[in-house]
Write a structure and sequence with these properties.
The complex is a heterodimer of chains A (312) and B (507). In chain A, strand 13 and strand 14 form a beta hairpin. The radius of gyration of chain A is 22 Å and the shape is elongated. Chain A has an eight-stranded mixed sheet with strand order 1-4-5-3-2-6-7-8, sandwiched between helices. Chain A has a six-stranded mixed sheet with strand order 10-9-11-12-13-14, with helices on one face. Chain A is built from nine helices and 14 strands. By secondary structure, chain A is an alpha/beta fold. Chain B is globular, with a radius of gyration of 25 Å. In chain B, strands 7, 8, 9, 12, 13, 14, 15, 16, 17 and 18 form a ten-stranded mixed sheet that branches. In chain B, strands 3-2-1-4-5-6 form a six-stranded parallel sheet, sandwiched between helices. A two-stranded antiparallel sheet of chain B has the order 10-11. In chain B, strand 15 and strand 16 form a beta hairpin. Chain B contains 15 helices and 18 strands. Chain B has two domains: 146 residues, Rossmann fold (3-Layer(aba) Sandwich); 279 residues, 2-Layer Sandwich (Dihydrodipicolinate Reductase, domain 2). Chain B has 507 residues and is α/β, with parallel strands linked by helices. The chains are: A alpha/beta (312), B alpha/beta (507).
């Protein structure tokens, strides 16, 4: 059921939510968290769709924050959606005028009592997400360095510079299947890795993070190379017995190479945004491994800079 | 233990538990169990990236098939029954590891073939000698297959490798046969390598029982005979026996459901808190509680059984049990069974546990209802509390997974009038859809060698020890009482509770 509210406020939206829930005949609330989606006109539909898909795994109240023109008088329109094959509620908040600088005043009264709050910027995010008034409401802040209007490198560097516990980036989430395979490879062949190579699309933040993760875990030199992508295309662990490699030139099926054995195909599909968000929502505490990876990444960036200036 | 893998970090909880290099040999590939549950679960695991890259599946059956025919069977079953979407790349990864070995269970050549196939897989797929044998075949053949596996050197692992065997219920039909079965398997496989699948224990909602009990503070203080009046455990099916006449007749509801599912549920509801959630600690608690279970002295008064007769089930006219094909017209097999059990310990003394199960009942539902004592004093007039029942906490196992709390509330209006209301927590319809099937979890646990969710033979024997006297009593006392299909069982079941001053919940 959909309810459109024009020129409204948070308390009218809250009572519309209760009314809609009553009308649906199920006053029980099984929702486990509030997901705030900070988006713009261009990406709004896609982001809200992905968020709705996530509710099948994590029943949630979704609050879409859509900031429109800053000109004119303050105005808030809302679209309330309940049911429609999602396990939760969704409200799209369209703001304009001076209000766009005070979006948190609309969102705060609409948060589910006591439950965790997650803020997601599907595209551009503020530099310091943790001290952003909206980001400040959540214990988890999700950015996506690979999907911003600025260069992915800059985006990831900015996130790294302002990293605090609770921040996370989808460029990191995309790596989970790769990391799982690599870890499984070393379970199977407990050999010493002497160095590693990571290949990926130019500027792929996932490739940067993969290199940083390998360096922080294995304490070895990791070389990065650019390819035409898509995304991460190859990770190679060099050992005395030969290379352990996963290469995925196509973005679908990968080849898994282990010394002394025939190559095997493994399914390693690039995942949809909704799947990535669902993974993020599974744990809401700090991701210590990401924290250490980010630290290693910052170090790598610094070393690369010194190397460059040294050359000159 | 192999040396530490530097890419693994205990804090890295994103990395899934992927089974190490291994393969599975499936006996009985054409059966319903294999096609509807095991094969789709394997595909779903692969699709979620939880199987090792070289995972191999070998089929063994009395068919004149090549590897490709077997692959076609798996393909059809996956397309039809898998939970996750069909992806060509996952399929390709999986299909490379399919093998088929034709043969009878007493055919030495076939088992030699099987050994060669497995050794070949170790070489080309890197399964490293780790293999699970899934016996999706009637239990009568467990013995011979186990023996053959041993004879042909398949049961014994070399070096660090493992061999495991997976079996499905029924685990015998009484204490003696259960022991024989364990003994037959034990000849080839030590007891810690035998994985007994009770798919109920793999269900998220069953595991949630333990989460509810041991992760919360508000339920534990009232989880005892001071506050609990009685507990009802129900597993009702709306279907008849369908095509399972051969299996079902002579077995009946008590052996089919109470011995395993309901007694396991009862153990989880009533056991003390385990020291930890590892297999050993859980098992100790379950065995302890099962050994404290007390049967009623008068089995005639505190048990009930029935057999469905023709009737209307949910708008469809259905025949009775005796009308089903291949059922002898004088069959005494019960399709409904109910009994009262008590637990002889401090926590539960005086709290009866009522277990019931049946086919062709009102609707399909499995639930555990903990019914609390009435408030010791009600400061309301009698008329005000007429609509007030006992508080209850209901754990809904399936369908509509969730938890219901039932308590009294004031009816809106000027008079003080109280009535029972339900507060529902839904595990969420869609939520459950994307949560893994019980078989996925259990098969993964077999491959990982993680046994907490599998009952050991001691538990199985303990539950037969409880049930055997009841079944013997029934065998001596005539025919089960008929009940019309689509109702909630025979009148004797209602009388059985009425004797204790209680009534069955309508689930």
């Amino acid at each position: 059921m959909n309810v459109d509210l024009t020129d409204t406020n948070a308390s009218q939206i809250a009572s519309a939510l209760v009314r809609a829930r009553r009308a649906a005949g199920s006053p029980a609330m099984g929702m486990v968290l509030t997901l705030i989606v900070v988006t713009d006109d261009e990406n709004c539909d896609e982001a809200m769709r992905a968020a709705a898909a996530v509710t099948t795994e994590h029943p949630a109240r979704i609050l879409g924050v859509l900031r429109q023109s800053a000109r004119g008088r303050s105005r808030l329109d809302a679209e309330v959606k309940i049911g429609n094959n999602t396990a939760g509620e969704a409200v799209l908040l369209r703001m304009s005028g001076e209000l766009i600088r005070h979006a948190e005043s609309v969102v705060l009264p609409l948060l589910l009592p006591d439950s965790p709050v997650v803020v997601w910027w599907p595209n551009d995010a503020p530099d310091d997400v943790a001290s952003d008034p909206l980001g400040n409401l959540g214990q988890r802040r999700i950015t996506d360095s690979a999907n911003t209007t600025r260069s992915a490198k800059t985006a990831l560097r900015t996130q790294a510079k302002h990293y605090v516990a609770g921040n996370t980036d989808l460029a990191w989430t995309r790596l989970t299947p790769w990391r799982a395979l690599l870890a499984a490879a070393l379970d199977q062949h407990p050999v010493t890795v002497t160095s590693a190579e990571v290949e990926g699309e130019r500027g792929s933040p996932s490739a940067d993070l993969m290199a940083a993760w390998l360096q922080s875990r294995l304490r070895i030199r990791v070389i990065q190379r650019s390819t035409s992508g898509p995304g991460l295309t190859c990770v190679r662990l060099l050992t005395r017995h030969g290379d352990i490699a996963i290469s995925r030139p196509s973005g679908h099926i990968a080849t898994f190479t282990i010394p002394g054995e025939a190559d095997r195909p493994v399914a390693l599909k690039r995942r949809e945004i909704a799947e990535l968000i669902a993974e993020e929502l599974r744990r809401l505490d700090e991701d210590e491994v990401f924290a250490r990876t980010i630290k290693a990444y910052v170090k790598r960036v610094a070393t690369a800079k010194t190397a460059k200036s040294g050359k000159r | 233990m192999a040396r530490h893998n530097p890419l693994r970090d205990p804090q890295d909880r994103r990395l899934p538990r992927i089974a190490g290099p291994c393969g599975m040999v499936l006996f009985g590939v054409t059966g319903d169990l294999s096609r509807k549950k095991v094969m789709p679960a394997i595909y779903d695991l692969a699709n979620r990236g939880l199987l090792p890259p070289g995972f191999s599946l070998t089929g063994f059956a009395r068919r004149d098939w090549a590897d490709q025919d077997f692959a076609d069977i798996v393909h059809d079953s996956v397309k039809q029954h898998a939970r996750t979407e069909f992806r060509e790349e996952t399929w390709r990864q999986l299909a490379e590891g399919f093998r088929f070995v034709p043969g009878e269970f007493d055919d030495d050549v076939a088992f030699d073939n099987l050994r060669r196939t497995i050794e070949d897989l170790d070489r080309v797929r890197g399964t490293e000698g780790n293999h699970a044998f899934y016996l999706a075949i009637p239990p009568a053949f467990f013995g011979i297959v186990a023996e053959q596996l041993k004879e042909h050197g398949l049961a014994e692992p070399r070096g660090n490798a493992w061999r495991r065997v997976v079996i499905e219920k029924p685990f015998g039909h009484d204490l003696e046969s259960a022991r024989e079965l364990s003994a037959a398997l034990a000849k080839a496989f030590p007891s810690d390598t035998v994985f007994r699948i009770d798919h109920y224990l793999g269900k998220e909602t069953v595991q949630n029982i333990m989460a509810m009990r041991f992760a919360n503070e508000m339920f534990e203080p009232i989880w005892n005979s001071n506050y609990v009046d009685h507990v009802q455990i129900t597993m009702a099916e709306d279907i008849g026996i369908g095509g399972r006449a051969g299996y079902y007749d002579g077995i009946g509801a008590a052996r089919d459901v109470i011995q395993n599912h309901l007694l396991q549920l009862m153990a989880l509801i009533s056991m003390e808190e385990p020291v930890s959630f590892d297999a050993r600690s859980l098992r100790i608690e379950k065995q302890k509680i099962l050994s404290a279970v007390l049967l009623p002295e008068r089995l005639d008064l505190h048990t009930a059984r029935g057999q469905y007769a023709a009737g209307w089930q949910g708008g469809v006219k259905v025949g009775g049990y005796l009308d089903e094909s291949d059922i002898p017209s004088d069959s005494k097999t019960e399709t409904y069974a109910a009994l009262r059990l008590d637990i002889d310990n401090r926590r539960w003394a005086g709290v009866p546990f009522y277990l019931r199960t049946g086919k062709r009942l009102g609707r399909r539902v499995t639930e555990v209802a903990v019914v609390f004592k009435p408030a010791p004093h009600l400061p309301f007039s009698e008329t005000a509390t007429e609509g007030l029942g006992q508080n209850a906490m209901v754990m809904r196992i399936q369908p509509d997974e969730g938890v219901t709390l039932r308590f009294g509330a004031k009816v809106p209006g000027t008079a003080m009038e109280l009535r029972d209301v339900n507060m529902d927590f839904a595990y969420g319809g869609a939520f459950v859809e994307s949560s893994p099937e019980a078989y996925e979890r259990l098969i993964l646990d077999v491959l990982l060698g993680d046994p907490p969710l599998f009952p050991q033979h001691e538990e199985v024997e303990a539950s037969w020890r409880i049930l055997d006297p009841v079944i013997e009593h029934w065998a001596k006392s005539g025919r089960p009482e008929a009940y019309p299909a689509g109702t909630w069982g025979p009148a004797s079941a209602d009388e059985m509770l009425a004797r204790d001053g209680r009534v069955w919940r309508r689930p």
